[in-house]
UniProtKB/TrEMBL annotation:
InterPro entries: Acyl_CoA_acyltransferase, Diverse_Substrate_AcTransf, GNAT_dom. One of its GO terms (molecular function) is N-acetyltransferase activity. This is GNAT family N-acetyltransferase. Residues 5-153 form the N-acetyltransferase domain. PROSITE patterns: GNAT. Keywords: Acyltransferase, Transferase. It comes from the Bacteria.
């Protein structure tokens, strides 16, 4: 990664390079092969990035014309604040980009956009086994102490 890394909003022409990053992200969390996301979910996710009525956004990290990482985030209402919350939902970098500040740059770009949107907080989740990411997250955020529960249907 000798060139400068820039973080920018995703563009329609990024699809061919975004898709392997998206697939890599999903595979990391066990969504590949028989458990892969349905194609229509990927297509709907992609279309939401470009729909002004959707609160879902995407940024990419790029160096020397190649995408190195992605971050997807969304805004939502809360019962405890007037301003919207910003949920950083997906973050992924190529293996070669890890440990080189790309993930940090993507998160910082979300912080900047959330502040500009009037959001009072950015939050995210990761799996407890994602030790590499947790090392970064412990430096740039704080653990809330909340435990996540879910029920799948």
């Amino acid at each position: 990664m000798p060139g400068q890394t820039i973080v920018r909003p995703i563009e329609q022409q990024d699809y061919e390079e975004w898709l392997p990053l998206w697939d890599g992200y999903n595979a990391f969390y066990g969504r590949s092969g028989e458990t892969a996301l349905a194609g229509e979910i990927t297509q709907m996710t992609w279309s939401r990035f470009f729909d002004a009525y959707e609160p879902v956004h995407a940024l990419v990290a790029e160096s020397e014309g190649r995408l190195l990482g992605l971050v997807h985030y969304l805004y939502h209402r809360s019962t405890t604040a007037i301003a919207p919350n910003c949920y950083l939902q997906d973050l992924f970098t190529t293996e070669a980009a890890r440990g080189k500040g790309v993930g940090r740059a993507l998160i910082n770009a979300v912080y900047e956009r959330a502040k500009a949107a009037g959001s009072g907080r950015v939050y995210w989740l990761t799996h407890e086994t994602n030790h590499t990411a947790i090392q970064l997250y412990d430096k740039i955020g704080e653990r809330s102490g909340f435990v996540v529960y879910r029920k799948l249907f």
